[in-house]
Records
---
Amino acid sequence: MSPTTNESEDGMLSEDQTDFPLNDECNFGGSAGGVVLKKGPWTSAEDAILIDYVKKHGEGNWNAVQKHSGLFRCGKSCRLRWANHLRPNLKKGAFTPEEEQLIIELHAKMGNKWARMAAHLPGRTDNEIKNYWNTRIKRRQRAGLPLYPPEVCLKALQESQNSSAFHGGDKGPHDLLQTNNFEIPDVIFDGLKANQNALSYVPELPDIPSTGMLAKGLGSSQYFSFMPPLMHRQKRLRESTALFSGYGGSIKNDCPFDQFQDDTLNKVAQSFGLSFPVDPDPITKNSQCFGVLPGSHTLSNGNYSASESTLGAVKLELPSLQYPESELGSWGTSPSPPPLLENVDAFIQSPPPIGRLESDCLSPRNSGLLDALLHEAKTISSAKNHSSEKSSSSSAPGDIAESSTLNICKTEWENYGDPPSPMGHSSTSRFSECTPISASGSSLDEPQPSAETIAGSNVKSEPIEHVWTSEVQKETPQLEYPCSDTLFGSSWLDHGSGFDKDHAIMTDAIATLLGEDLGSEYKTITPGTSSSQECGLGSCAWNNMPGVCQMSEIP
DNA sequence: AAGTCAATCAACCGCATTCAA
DNA sequence: TTTGAATGCGGTTGATTGACT
C-alpha cells in the first residue's frame, strides 16, 4: 500500500482533509495555534517535508515539526509516519519466513509487546508486526488452528527451562527470553514441584507472566483456547478492579456475594475468558456454561463478539497478560495457567492460607486461564460445601471466610451451570488445551509427562499448521485420565481430613464450571462407575468423570 | 461486469510513562 | 513534590485492494 495518497497534492492542506473536527490530543484542542491539523493519509509532499525536517533537526521534538516546517500534522502523527514509513533502513515488503518464525517465537515469549518484538526485527516496525500478527491470528482462528506451532512452544519451553536451570530464574543471556517486569522466576515452578506438599498455598505466587507462559510448558498451542479476552493491560487492570471491586473490597469483610447475581456470572464468565477454537456455537454454549444468556451483551463486553465468537477472535492473545509487578501476588490473578498439570496440582491442592482470602476470593484480576478457573471453581464450590461448617476447624484456612456468602455464588453457578451440555465442548480437550501436547497425537490426557519430557526430544514437533482437533484426541486410544491424584494432586487426599473434602469440592466445582462433556471421554477408562444420580448436579454429565463426581470413590 | 467479502495496511486514538520545569 | 508536555505503546478503525461469487 502506498504510504501516501494523492500524489498530486501539495501535501499541505486539502479541503476535504482539514475541515473535519479534530479532537485527539495532538490537535491542541482542535488546532495548533488556530491551524487545523490534517489527518488521514500522508501525501508525498508531506513526507518530503517531514524527511527534510528530520534531516535538519533530527528525530524527536515532534510537536515542533508543525511549527518549524509548516506541516499541518500533529507531533504524534509525524512521529508515527517517520517511524513506520520514512525512517531509513526500513524493510518493506512481506515478512520472510524467518521473520515470521521469529515473530511467532517472540510473541510466544513477549505477548503483544510489539515494540519489543520490533527491536528483534531490524527494519520492521511494531505496527507491521502487530498487523501481521493480528492477521495471522484471524487466519488461524478462522481455520481453527492453534496459535503457536508446537515447536515454538517447545522451543520456548526449552529456553525457559534452560534459563531456569542455569540462571535460577534470572534472565537468560539470550534476549529472546528477556523478561519484562512481570516475569516471575522459573524457579517458582521448580519450587512448586519440589515443595508441592509443603507449600501451604500457591497464592504466594506472583502473577504468572504470560511472557513465560509458553516457555513454562503450557505452551501448547491448544492453550490459546483459554486465552482471556485481550484488553489493554491497563484497562484490564482497571476494569477488573472495577469489576470485582464490589467483591474484592467487600470480600475482606463480608464477601457480599449477594451481589453475585446474574451479571456476576457474566463477569466471571468474562474473567474466565474461555473461548473455543472450533466450537460451532460458542456463544450459546458459553452462555449455557456460564449462565450467560444468548445474546447477552456480556460476551461482547467480554470481547467476544458474535462475529468473532468462535475463537474469541483477535482478542485471544495469550502471553500478553502481563501485569505490573505491583499487581503481583494474588495467585488468582495469574494470567496464565501453570505450565503443567502438576503445577495445576500445586495451585489447586493447597488450601489458601489465612489472610489471603481477600485477594483470592473471586480473583479480582482473573486470568481466565486454567489456574484461575480452577481456583474460582474451588472457591465457589468451597463456599457451598463449607458453608455449613464455616466454623469448623477442619476447614482449610481461609475457607471459613469464603463459606457462607460464597454459597450464594455456588447456588448461582448451579442455576446457570446445570444445562445438560453447558459447553458442548469436551472438557477433556479443555484440560488438554491446558497441558503440553505430545505432538505425536498422543493425548494430553495421557499421564502427564514431566516438564523435562515435554521439553525433551520425546516430543515430536508437528507441522506449524497442525490442527488440533477432536480427531487428534480421538487418535489417542485411551485417555488415561490422570485421576484425582494426578490431575488435582495427590495431596488432596494426603493432607488430612480437610483435603479429601476439598478435593471433592474442587472437582465438583470444576464440573460445575466446565460442563458435562468431560466425563464422556473419561468414561472409556472408568466406565460406568457412576450415574447421574450420584451427582448432585442434576444433569451434570460429570458423573462419568472419575475423580469428579465420583471423587469419593477414588481411594 | 457488478457486487460482496475478507485481508491488509496506514493511521488514529487513548492511555501510560518519562522527564523537565 | 507536583504538574504538564512529550513521547511511546498497544488497540482499534477505516480505507483500499484483491479474490470470489
Note: Residues 1, 3, 23-26, 39-42, 76-77, 80-81, 84-85, 127-128, 131-132, 134-135, 138-139, 142, 232, 234-235 of chain A lie near DNA strand B (CB under 10 Å from a C1').
---
Amino acid sequence: MKTIQVYRCLCDETRLRILNLLLEGPLCVCHLAAVLGLEQPKISRHLKALKGAGAVETERCYNWTIYRLAARPNAVLETNLKCLQDMRGEEAVFAHDLRQRARMFKELMAESCCELPARLRELCRESSQTV
Amino acid sequence: MKTIQVYRCLCDETRLRILNLLLEGPLCVCHLAAVLGLEQPKISRHLKALKGAGAVETERCYNWTIYRLAARPNAVLETNLKCLQDMRGEEAVFAHDLRQRARMFKELMAESCCELPARLRELCRESSQTV
DNA sequence: GACGAATATGCGGTTAATCGAATATTCGTC
DNA sequence: GACGAATATTCGATTAACCGCATATTCGTC
C-alpha cells in the first residue's frame, strides 16, 4: 500500500523538519544539514527515504544536489504537506528552522562565487508560483 | 511531537483497516477481528495503539468493548480520516472489509439475544449525524 | 588523472514495532 | 463464588528503523 510508505516517511521528526524547510523552497543537502544542525550523512539518508516515497525530487547543479518537493505528490502526501504548513506555528522547532533557513539563505544569496545561488533563486521563483 | 504519534499509527495496514471500518460506525473487538479475519489479541493491541494516539474511544457494553472513532480528533488525524474515506475505492482491501462488515453487521442486527445490537444501533445513529 | 567539495553508501550496534502463542483480567450469569 | 465469553496483557523472538562513524562515489577544477 503506497499510502503506508508515505506515513512511514512522516513519522520521523527529521523528515518532517526537512519537508517544512522544503515548503519554503528547494535546498541542497549541505544547506539542509547546516540549517538543521545535523550531520550530512543523516540528512542524505532521510532524503533518500523521502525520495523513495515520492515526496521529493532532485536536480544536480554542479556538485550540489538540489532537493525540492515533488511536483506531483499523491493525495495523502499533498494533504499532509498542507497540514504541516498549518502546524508550523504550534511547533517551536519548525519556526526555529525557518528562521535559520532565512538567515542562511540570505548569506548564500549574497555570495556570487558559484552558480548555485542563481539556480536556487530560479527554482524559488518557480516554486512560489506552484505552491 | 504529538503529530508523529498520529503518523506512527497510520503506517500500519491493520490499523488503517480498523479505522476504515470505524468510519462506518462503532464496532466491538470480536467483530473487528471477525471482519478482518485476524486474531483477537492482535486487534486488541492495535486498538490500544490507536487509543493511545487519540484516534479511538471506548465504551463498555456488558462484556463487550465498543470502539469508535474519537469524537474530537486532532487536526492531522481528522484530515487523514477524510483522506482514508476518499481512498477507499483505490484499495481493494478496504472495499473488501466494508463488504464483510456489512454482511456481519446485518447478521448481528438480526440477533435479539443480547443488548449489544441495540447499543450498536444507537451509536450508529449518533455517529451518522456527526460524521 | 590528481585533488577537493558535495553527496551517497556500508557497516555494526541500539532501539522500537510487530507477531504468535499462552495467559490474565473483566464482567455478567448461574 | 464458579464458570464462560469477551477482552487485555505478557513473553520471547523476529524484523525494521535509526544512528554514528568511516568510506565510497561523483563531478568540476587544476
Note: Residues 5 and 11 of chain B are 10 Å apart (CA to CA).
